[in-house]
Automatic annotation (TrEMBL):
Family per record: Belongs to the peptidase C2 family.
Higher taxonomy: Eukaryota, Metazoa, Ecdysozoa, Arthropoda, Crustacea
GO CC entries: cytoplasm
InterPro entries: Calpain_cysteine_protease, Calpain_domain_III, Calpain_III_sf
Superkingdom in the source lineage: Eukaryota
Protein name: Peptidase C2 calpain large subunit domain-containing protein
Pfam families, A to Z: Calpain_III (PF01067)
PANTHER family cross-referenced by the UniProt entry: CALPAIN, CALPAIN-5
Peptidase C2 calpain large subunit domain boundaries: 45-117
Organism, scientific name: Notodromas monacha
This protein's UniProt keywords: Hydrolase, Protease, Thiol protease
GO terms for MF: calcium-dependent cysteine-type endopeptidase activity
GO biological process, one term: proteolysis
Length: 118
């Protein structure tokens, strides 16, 4: 289909992956750490609860600091021959999602995240 025809026929396109093969990396359990085919996937399920940990935006940093927080470390494992080397680059994919109207949610909320180097 021509791109212009596609744009005329559709208003929304959702593109997703059914696996952890983002970045073109093969789905290979024997991937070698530190090579182009290495990957690590971590899923964290959580939620914001009003009055407990729904701190809002950075406009009020004191409340913002009550939002859920996670630390991400990129390092080489002990069995790597280059274990003494520090990564100069680390590619990270972050996806923040919420349940939609399909799941019975009436209002879709504005959500976001911030990343800080510590």
């Amino acid at each position: 289909m021509d791109f212009n025809d596609f744009c005329r026929e559709f208003e929304v396109a959702t593109i997703c992956t059914m696996g952890n093969d983002f970045g073109g990396m093969p789905d290979n359990e024997n991937a070698v750490f530190g090579t182009s085919n290495h990957k690590a996937v971590k899923l964290i399920y959580g939620n914001w609860k009003y009055g407990l940990n729904a701190g809002g935006t950075m406009a009020n940093f004191e409340k913002f600091a009550t939002n859920p927080q996670y630390m991400l470390l990129c390092h080489r494992p002990k069995n790597s021959s280059d274990a003494h080397k520090v990564y100069q680059e680390c590619t990270v994919v972050v996806s923040l999602m919420q349940e939609t109207k399909d799941a019975g949610i009436v209002d879709v909320l504005d959500i976001g995240f911030a990343m800080f180097k510590v």
